[in-house]
Every structure is written in structure tokens, then in C-alpha cells.
Write a structure and sequence with these properties.
Number of strands: 0
Number of helices: 7
Distance between the termini: 35 Å
Strand content: under 5%
Shape: globular
Order of helices and strands: HHHHHHH
Radius of gyration: 19 Å
Length: 192
């Protein structure tokens, strides 16, 4: 059985300013154009800018996935709120949406005119493959955190089996495993 490498002990950077939040979320949004937002978000927020530890990021991502709406929009709001409250949430949200939305609208107009060209279809197929690779990359990067936690592995395996083998829909899975996981990991007072 392979042992996971120890997590590097690096100090966190100073909390980001509003400008840094905007630019960081803009970097996430532009890096992940075409997919892989969670992987790029983790890479930029945890590895490059060192605003959060991997564990803090995973906590935020879990919270973001529990709320309705796009995960990375929720994650931007979470990150902004963590560091600068409501103003941080709004600035992070603007960084995540402003430029990408404008580019998306321009690309939509271009696609409307060029969608019948075979080259455009091949380029889009390549973008989909790259996005799938980024999602797998993030999964493998955070996997080592779970090797040390058999309950997390059991929950993950149970969710996988329920959704893939038994075709259980997402909402019932979240409604069952969410409270179980929260109850198990709820902070408890230690006596001593």
C-alpha cells in the first residue's frame, strides 16, 4: 500500500486585498475558460497565491457545492467573504464574471457565424478533453488528503456506488450523505 506524501508546510500569504481578490478570481476564470474551474481555482488559490490551505479550500468547495448555483460562483463568493466580507464577495464575484461574460458573449456571436466549419468542431472537442483532464488532475491532487481518513473514503465510495451503479440522483444522495458527513465531522469538545 502506497503512503501519501506529507503535505508541504508552507506559510499562508497575507489576506488578499480587494484588488488582489478581483485579479485572483479573474485569473481563475480566464485560466479555466472551457472547463476545469475547480482544478484551476485550487491551483491558483492554494498553490500559487497561498491564500488558503488545501483543507480550507476543500471545506469551501464543499460548502459551495451544497448551495444552488454554479460551484465556482459560490466558491468565489465564499473566498471573497472569508477575506473581505460582503465587499470581498462582490469583488470576487465581479472578477469571476465580468471579463469572462464579455468574452463569452463575443465568442457566442463568433460561433453563430462559424459553427458550420469542421475546424471549429475539432477545436471544441479538444477543449472538452482538456477540461476532463483538469477535473481528473484536481481529483488526484486532493486524493492524498482522504487516504488518511477511512470515513471519508467510505463516504466517497458510497456516493460513487449509489450514483454510478444504482443510478441514484444527486439530490437524494446529498440529502442522505450530507447530514451523515456533517454529523460525523462535527467538532466535538475534548475532555481532558
Amino acid at each position: 500500500m502506497a503512503v501519501a506524501p506529507p503535505e508541504p508546510t508552507t506559510e499562508l500569504a497575507a489576506p488578499p486585498s480587494l484588488r488582489e481578490l478581483f485579479l485572483g478570481m479573474l485569473q481563475v476564470a480566464l485560466s479555466a475558460f472551457g472547463g476545469g474551474l475547480s482544478a484551476w481555482s485550487q491551483r491558483i488559490v492554494v498553490e500559487q497565491r497561498r491564500w488558503m490551505t488545501n483543507e480550507q479550500f476543500l471545506t469551501g468547495l464543499t460548502v459551495a457545492r451544497l448551495f444552488p448555483g454554479p460551484n465556482q460562483i459560490n466558491m468565489a463568493v465564499y473566498i471573497g467573504t472569508q477575506f473581505r466580507g460582503l465587499r470581498g464577495a462582490l469583488v470576487a464575484l465581479a472578477g469571476m464574471l465580468l471579463v469572462p461574460f464579455t468574452l463569452l458573449m463575443l465568442l457566442g456571436v463568433a460561433y453563430f457565424w462559424l459553427h458550420e466549419l469542421p475546424a471549429v468542431d475539432r477545436v471544441l472537442a479538444g477543449v472538452v478533453a482538456a477540461a476532463a483532464g483538469m477535473a481528473l488532475s484536481m481529483g488526484f491532487k486532493i486524493l492524498h488528503q482522504y487516504w488518511r481518513d477511512p470515513v471519508a473514503l467510505l463516504l466517497a465510495a458510497g456516493v460513487f456506488v449509489a450514483m454510478v451503479v444504482f443510478k441514484v440522483r444527486l439530490i437524494p444522495v446529498v440529502l442522505i450523505t450530507g447530514p451523515l458527513a456533517m454529523a460525523w465531522y462535527w467538532p466535538r469538545r475534548t475532555t481532558g
